[in-house]
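Reopening closed ticket. The problem is back. First fold of the pair:
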Amino acid sequence: MRTVFVRLLLHLTVAVVLITLLVGALVYRYTTVMLKEEVLGANTELLAQTRKIVEQALGEVQQMATSLAINTDVQKSVWLPWNLEEEYHFLQNTGNLFSERIHSSNYLHSIYLYSSINNKLISPSGIMDLTDFPNREPLREFIEGRETMSWGAGRWPDERNSSDSVLRFYFSVPLNHMEKKGVLLVHLKEDVLYNAVVNTNNRKLGNVAILNSEGEVLSYKDKSMLLHPFADTDIEQIRTEKTGSFVEKIGGKSMLVSYLTSDFNGWIYVTLNPYQEVFKRSNDIIRITLLISLLGLALGVALMVLVSRNYYKPVRRMVHALSNHLERPFTKALHRDEFSYISESIDHLFNENEEFKTKFYNSELVLREHALIHLLSGSPSGSEELKRQLAYYGIPLQPEHFIVIVLRLYLDEEPERAEPEEKLRNLIHFQVRMLCEETMAAYGSGVYIPQFHKQDVMIMNTGTWGDREQTVNKAKELAFQVKRNVTTQLPEASLTIGIGGSYRSLGEICLSYNEAVEVLLYERFTGTGSILSIHDLHINYMNRNRFMNFRQWVDKAVNELKIGRLDASLAAKDELIRQLVGDSALGLHHKNLILNGLLHALMTVRAEMLTGREGEEEDDGLVYEFAKLQSLEDIRLWFDKVFARTADALQDKREYKNVELIGKLVSHIQANFREPLSLQMLADLTYMNSQYLSKLFKEVTGQTFMDYLTYIRLQEAYRLLKESSLGINEIAAASGFGQKQNLIRTIKKHTGLTPTEYRKRYAIERLNGEKSKIDTDPIH
């Protein structure tokens, strides 16, 4: 049998090859990055030095142009008309001045002065019309533009029918005049300036190029390479980032382009380095690394063969010994290699003892879990008995210093079924236990108790954790690690963790457990997946002003509900909950206290509204429902429903009270209509606003107060006219109208008759035996 030996050799070989490739890749990457940073650093230094030299030269040109612009002869050449028939020394002086400046500088190619009054140009070589000037188009663009100075590049024809590369500088004369009367043109020798930069840097800098802000080439050793080298996106990147690098194909070759943008005039300075040459040393290094690794691999394989053969001999002897002791050895088809053969042989020899071992072990596990449950439940057993149980069942807990951590596990349920399959749930619980026990081992001794009252529990020894504050911080760190490991390994699971207090003796473990369970009640404020500690409940203290602010929102919500403004009441309630969520300095205990205060205020309103056993039972149900809510969003929606039900009940009660009140007022009117009555008198009698009382009266009776009072008085006046012989003045006084004119006007308005006519018609109709047609209520 050589299967184990061969497999081991192959595994080791593959491992060494993978390690070699990984090391080579890391070395190559490191070398490439290092070389790139070195090249980019050198290029940045080079570009900065080049920019400094060029800007110094350009600055000198601008200073020279400024001094020329204020020269008296130059000013005369701009402002005065040129009459060449007369003697004008200022034109000759201007040309000589330009000639002196050109001969005093290696960079200057030529100087011209354009006068818009004469539409001509003057230079050391003479005077020419604008139409004969080679670069008249750029000059016209500058004259028409708003800039007072501008830089550019172009070609200038020479005597050999060829052209020179020049840098153009346009300078307005006078400088700050609204209208450009003249323009000073200075041409620089681009190749001389470029060579000066190369010589100053004292190295081969032929790859430095100067571009304007639009990406056009101003200066370079080979402009044909950079006619259209960069895309618009590259130029935009250069403008935005000011300095940096990118890789671009130029002339069919990949080039590493480093760039630097000048703040002086917006010109762009770039260097071009062949990409392959930059990283040539990286390729050489990786070749050497791979060669050394291959030599090491060959030597390692040889050593593995030698060492593995020596270690394989004891395994082979064990296989022969087992084969000799088995009555019926296994066939080769039943095992894959030597180790599986050894395992199956040992299983066969000790198979009879396994059943007994399993039963005994399961019994020990049950008793062990029972002892742990006693610790959490507060068993009356003495301290010594508890220590004895820890020792007997091998529970890895020290006899002093404990803290309890309770885990509440949530699983993401699939929408098509109410709950995960039982097997899947059990598997997830088992994985959570394994992850928690692995994390606990890094923090000291402790035990894990699964599914105690549907929650998992961890009991940790804290004797080595330090003082009380350090112990609390260590417990939070452990809880955080447990949560991170579980959520990383099991994305479908989430944990809310409660941490109890730190206690000294075994008998106090139940106290820490109860505190951990208690703190989980505050999960509604922090949400699923939070870590809560009993030590954090009272850490944040509420000052009186903050408490009064929350109390004001509670009072506002309840008061708005009392007066029937449900929308305003709900808005106040939502603002209260919003402030609770945003107040990170407020402790969980105080948040719970404030929400319970809102519930109690609501129940007080309901107690005033509902009476009897039915109302008490409903309020008891509210307390039970509120205790089961799991989040602030659930609490907000629950309060919406309760507020709406309470508002409907209050509205019903108001309507009932309104009907009762108006009924009493109607009875008062019917009993006292003969007396002077007014709406304000009734309002004062009921302690109500007169307008609001008028509205209620109209809603209940369908009539206004004055219409109803008039109706009652008219009925009495009709009766007296029909049944008595009293005079009109007496009837007006007896029916409440007071004066005779009021009675006459009101009856005529409703019947079209005077009181006397009404009495006569009624008498005639009665004599004729006809039923009176006006004996009905005129108002109705």
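Second fold of the pair, where the issue appears:
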Amino acid sequence: MKRSLWITVGALLLLIGGWLGYRQVFPASRTVGSLVPPGALLVLASDRLQDTVSARVLRTQLSLRQLPVFDEARQKLDRFLYATADTATVLKFVSGRNIRYSLHSISKTTLDFIFYVPITAQDQPFLNRLTNPDPRQYRVLNHTFAGEKILDLVARGNEPVGSFILTDGFLVGSVSGILIENVAKRMHQSLKLTAAEPDFRVDADHLAGLSVRPEVLQSLFSNVGSLVRLFLPEELNLQFRQSASRSHLIGYAVDQIGNRRDVAALFANQTPRRIQYANLIPQTTATLYHIGISDAPQFGKSLSNLLGSASSDFLRDRFKQIAPETKPLYQSLGPDIMLCRLESPTGALRQILILTAQDGKKLANAYQQIGIRSGAKITADPKSYLGHKILLLNVPELPASLFSSLFSGFSQSWITQHGTSLIVANSEDALQDYLQQVQRGAVWTADARQAELLNSTLRPANFTAFARLNRGQTSVIASWPLGWQNLLDKVDPATGTPALANLENMAYQASYGNENIQSTVVLGRNTRPASRAVLNKVLLQKKTEFNAPLISAPIVTGNLSDSSAQFYAQNSAGQFVLVTPDGDKLVQNNTDGPIRSNALGVDFLNNGRLQYLFMTDRTLYIADPVRISKEVALQAIPLPKGIDPTFLARPRGSQQRNMVALAAHKDGHIYALDRQRRTFVRLMTAPHKDTLQLPFQVMVTPSGMAILGMQSDGTLNHWRENGTQYPHFPTKIERTNEEEPEIRFVGPALLPPGQTQIRSITDEGQLLTINANGLIANRIQLYRPIRRGYFRLFPDEDQTNWLILRTTDTEIAVLDQQGQRRFDVRALQSGRNNIRYHRLGAGVELVSVKSGGFTMLYDLNGRILNDRPIPSDFPVALQFDERTNELYILSGAHQAVQLFSIRLR
């Protein structure tokens, strides 16, 4: 009896345990986590993502719905819910509900969302409308998959709207039927007892929660080197809050250290701190990586251990080679190590490494000694630029050898000392650009918005990775997997702007402890979006009147957007007038005629200031501004007979320190201005006399400078710096048969940066691709209209990209690189036209068309940017201020110089 009782009790306990175990694996009331199919890239939760937000709030602060991933999730749910109910009904249904969204990969190029809306018995009227929509507009089909009933909402024309499943506690839906079928399969799979879903807090202080898989983080940071992935935790569970400035949303997370103990060891005893030398970060920085240290010797020891066991054979071997010289360098480091990747219109890598120092001279000497030990040979004295001595250490990947693969991308090191800091650039151009920005104060601390970001939004951290999205040719998005690009980089048909236009800044920060990584993700923007009332409006900012008419376009120095802008103007009396930022008009000197050329800023006098070179018909002038005394010293150099006075070029990459400017001769030769002899000397000689089409192209090569120039008769020259031509050059472009007209060119040839084939086009529209050996690889004859029109290659002013221009006396057509029409402009004034292609940074590209006394601005799709014509007797000067999204236009007309602005975004 007693034995049977125990057997009965045991059987009951076994049944109860089995039932509880079954319900643990197959719960009657499933949680959201049990519904999410495996492999979710991210899961987010919010109770206010579907809320309506006023236009004023969208302009003055960042809303959760303006973040691209959140916005895409919101749109997917909105499209589904608003298909069957009006706005008031939908808002009442979603109000206050903690809705979750999971993102999944459908294919290699497609990502999509599933949404999970909690429901109760009180929601039955709304669910009835969803399952029984208005038959005149929608219908609901159904099918069974994996034992679950799936409902498909389709429009009257059989366009799918979405699929959904109704469970006891959730409305689960998606635009993708495949994903809903995955949910159905998930509902009949056992759950791992160890599986835990993130515990998101959604309340008044927490706007949303976001859980991200480590593989996703790695793919989004894959463009910045393998080491960045080591700084990231294995998983991020972020709680988002609004920043104090309301311009950014901040996600906080504390995750276990996991396999990141090597990184934690790197920052052992290093107190997290803010960026202290932000005055050295240039305004054109597209991406910034910052390491903050408080104990330089300890950091040096930790870094030596890390590099001594580096995964890269090259870095490990190089570090063994330089290890004896590294201790003085590490010990002299200051609190900030910063890598700035500058915006690049060509897509070329332009990097600046900033090493702050306790002893600047000691640090510079140590870096130089390490370069020499690595094999650098110093064959020339340092160059001088804007008061800085510049030295070339021609050895690859020196920064990476000292600070890990995060700092790769330096094929050589151009170094200089600025204050107590050592500045290292990967090219001379990048270093010169950096020094110009620092000299004129175009740095982050001079920008109130950026200073606020640094001082209040970003927190103290050991490591910071910061990216400014949508920068021209440096876009972080371009390096993302194609699925993410397709999901996020869409153009909003209502506004014509990409989905990511609302997001300018993205940062990841981390501080490392013994057990945890404290992470911060910062998403937001500095720039306040323009209201519709001011977008594309031409606003007059300043007008400076003169007593006599102007005879040439004003020359700009400084930034038009701030108080540093001053410009030069010429009047009909031959007076050269300096207009100060305060509006003072100071007559400096007389010139012998109107300015014909562009103005070139160079350090001609080697006095730590930029001088501006320009040409009249007979003379080259050097204007040296002295800001303290508000004067300009004007010096003159006679032009050799035959020099074309319309174009000056910078001798980029030249190994000859005294050559500071290049000009073309009417016979096709290239002349250089010798700073020491103060005269023009012939540098390149054309094989025969014929006009060189402007602008000729100046290129940087490993051995120095190269110049590409097309003569009007089709002779293509490709010169080295020493005046000789590359093999197979010069080459003559010949017609394919005698029935064709003679080959003539009215535009230049161009070797696009980063490419190996030369491009040009004849005046009759034959688009040519020319190999490096001078042979024609391809000819394409473009459509020629009945009216007479000439074709020419149309490079931008910095020769970083090109379009094609077809012109008649009263019409122009802008074509893309394949010869397809982008837009045309008609009814121009014959003989009074000037067309220019501008790439202004931050992704802003436009074409200015001056006809008669007015200028119009067009984007590359032909959309007019200015709401009214801009008065201009000469080609206008343009600058774009990415801090305010405003375009500034300096124009000379009649007896006045006017400064206009246009808000573009």
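Update: turned out to be a display glitch only; the data is intact. The CA atoms of residues 25 and 191 lie 5 Å apart. The chain has a mean pLDDT of 85. Please close again.
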